[in-house]
Amino acid sequence: MYSYNSVLIVSGIFIVMLLAMEIGFQSGRRKKVRVAEAITQANAVLVSMLGLLALLLAFTFSAALQRYEDRSRTVVAEANAIGTTYLRAQLLPGGMRDEVQALLSQYLDIRLQEGRADATEPLLRESLLHQAKQMEAQLWRHAVRAAELDNSVVASGLFIQSLNELIDTSTTRDAALNRQVPESVLFLMIATIVLTTATLGYASGTAGHRVTLAALILVILIALVVYLIIDLDRPRRGAIQVSQESMLNLQRNITTARAGNPLASVQSSSGEYKP
Q1: DSSP structure string for 92-140
Q2: Each residue of 161-198: pLDDT tens digit?
Q3: pTM of the prediction?
């Protein structure tokens, strides 16, 4: 389901809900010979299914929202890690500083592009991930070389520590971006929605009248909740996107710092860069 447009998925679900409701209505209308018994039974089943559907929607929405928040936190964590590593590169010996900082600036650009890569462009994302891993390897080689050249392990050790955090947070962010609500849960939720609307139509059929406006509004609201769940669970497409503001702020600060070379200009909006 991840490769399809959210609007198309929800539109399809809404149409299926209406069809299931109509099928249920036609089936219920044929049972009017035992109307009292049928209405009682249908209403009891409908109430139970609505309760189950509410539970599934709440559980799935909570899971999707939690994953969205996790992705947002990992973006901020990675921005802080890159900013800290950039500042601590000033502790490296001699000409290595400018080279490492330039590499970190390029690395930040690559990570920004990768975070914005659309889900429909997997090859582009794989290419950007490969470039980022190559840059991490280059940065680590610089860290090893700095440790060999530095007489004091304290300065190079601080840089190595921040670089290690950078690599860890990039892996964590990639994992968070790829973590979605299991499709089996989504399919169970959709199946429950279809069966519930069919039961709603059946109950209306046994009562001898069409589905009321209030019931149609309920169906529309269910479809909107499903849209929010699917959209929250897709960080690379749809209306709800994970904010890259922390990375963009860092990119602007590093660009300013490299233009005028003021160390103090590289700051975090959250105040979490640790020089």
Answers
A1: S-TTHHHHHHHHHHHHHHHHHHHHH--TT-HHHHHHHHHHHHHHHHHHH
A2: 899 999 999 989 988 888 888 888 889 999 999 999 88
A3: 0.78
